[in-house]
Write a structure and sequence with these properties.
By secondary structure, this protein is mostly helical. The protein has 20 helices and 14 strands. Helix 6 crosses helix 7, helix 10 packs across helix 12 and helix 17 packs across helix 19. It binds glutamic acid.
Amino acid sequence: MYNKKVRVRFAPSPTGGLHLGGVRTVLYNYLFARQHKGDFIVRIEDTDQSRYVPGAEEYIFNCLKWAGLEPDESVIQGGNYGPYRQSERKPLYRKYADQLVADGHAYYAFDTPAELEKMRADFKTEQNPSPQYDRHIRTKMRNSLTLPQEEVKALIASGTPYVIRIKMPEEQIVSFTDMIRGEVSFNTSVIDDKVLLKADGMPTYHLAVVADDYLMEITHAFRGEEWLPSSPVHVLLWQYLFGLDKMPQWAHLPLILGPNGKLSKRDGAKYGFPVFAMNWTDPKTNELTEGFKEKGFLPEAFINMLALLGWNDGTGQEIFTKDELIEKFSMKRVHSGGAKFDYEKAKWFNREWIKQLEPAKLREQVKQVFAAANIPAADDILLDQVILLVKERCDLLTDFVEQAAFFFRAPEAYDLDAVKPKWNENKSLFFVEMIRNFELAAVWNATDLEHNFKEIAAANHLKPGEVLLPFRIMLVGGKFGPHVFDIAALLGRGETISRIKHFLSLL
Ligand code: GLU
């Protein structure tokens, strides 16, 4: 479909947890790359060293691994376009900044932090509360456009710190075709002279993203809508440095909305739902933010839910496997308006996926959750039977702990209050008789157990309802769980009898 090999990239800055929106960007990149038999690259954008957070990079790769969205090229996989970490590419950017200066598209600025501060204070007005370094201000500052050439040379020669800024043209309309939004235009007069190269020689995001998309031969660049305002700067850099015909096609993905506006980490804490892909502990504050993985989401459900946050295939179908998404995804069907995140709907996706996932895959996931909860479930055959019995009751993988732990270990507590007030001698005698019946039962299956149980209850003038709830509480500890005779059948004769005996001793 495209005459060049499709190459897309996800370019995170390692500054903290990986937000839902970030994983959706990864997903759309991944689906597009797979659909077009292209390459999916992860490039670490760590040029802003002041925002660097230890552990964040490794965490991002762990999230991608869990979600099944691993790249073809990155600091982990390697590749022919490395290094894949911008801080290690520092020497590559300088020449582009110099070229822009030589061509008159950028200039040296020597203003000190104190001078910039003063500028912001001096030019602050009610209409313009935070003045920017733009075409009006630049004429009043210390830069290579205002200072005599000799002085500029002397300042550079003496090692005076400087940055390189883009010289935004006046009254120029910069446009490009966004794959989602169509034609997008900006007037350059309202855009400030962004720094391209910092005093320490590190590029800023703007220069690095354009240079690297060029050097890595990126054909399509998908990123969050919050980057739309930066796009005219990038388009100009493409025009000045490499030619617009080489520029990737852009798509700016819609915002993900929470209960009030843009979905934030704070919404998660406030409403009790995860916002990050996996648990993230901020190394500075030790604050833990919960992730979808640990909350009990299946990766299949997580990416299915994310795919539909902004896209649909037009048929109303909601459940998609990854392969179906690869086949059906299209940027044309991504809408530009914000996509509302609904946690109840996210759980619905997970419930549906728990119901339909291949048994062996679901077993592996449940095993991990059980291991984390110290539940000894070593017997795969029993585990499969248990899962089949309780999975309809689970929205989250973590629900399996409550719904099924009692199959593998005796309940830690019993809801005695639900039984004691209505307990009597007749019921005690009934259960003693049941123990004997169970001991002698020729076969051990749910149908026969139920039949015997009801017959003996009737012979003791008890309605089944009077003894079924106590029986359930004896086996599972509380008023929950699947059909009680299915439980007894799976627990087995010995364990069922021992739980009845133990319970009777508590009364
Ligand atoms: N480093 C930017 C970020 O953290 C990447 C934006 C882009 O994809 O161009 O989101």
